[in-house]
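All the exercises in this workshop are built on plain-text protein records. The record below serves as our worked example for the rest of this section.
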Amino acid sequence: MQFKESEILELKRSTSELKEAIISIAAILNKHQRGELYFGIKNDGAVVGQMVNEKTIRDISKAIGDQIEPKIFPAINKTSLRGKDCIHVEFNGNEAPYYAYGRAYIRVGDSDRKLSAKEIEKTIIGKYKDILRWDNKICDKAALKDISISKLKSFLKSCKLPYINKENSLNKLGLIEAPRRRAVGESSP
């Protein structure tokens, strides 16, 4: 297996590059929502190995937990490659933007670039676009009398739909909520 850095694969010679590795994880998540990282492989693909024990894996897990927001829970495992011990980190998340050390990054090729404030704003708006749309909001205080018959007729005509009456038309469009009927013996609110 030949190793080559990419938009979803990061290689680090050792855990001495842990800070840079954490930045790469955030950058990859912000672009691809998943990726892999190896400690013990130089960025040219040469497997050099890495001292691995339980403390090493715990330290990596703690650093990722402390420095990446929102939190992720990667799989971190010891693996043997070409007879040398390495550490393999698999991660995923769909809560972008992710921040490493308080900054947001994006993966471009095999490098990590800081996201500008405008790019972060675009990411957040994209994430919440369906929630932020005004026409997805229910107006609890609206009544049938608030709906213009002429505008409703005009809309239905443009959709090639018939107008019967206001309530029927809004109901067929899924824009009205029928009042809940009380069961026999149920008291009024």
Observations:
- The domain at 9-132 is CATH 3.30.950.30 (Methyltransferase, Cobalt-precorrin-4 Transmethylase; Domain 2).
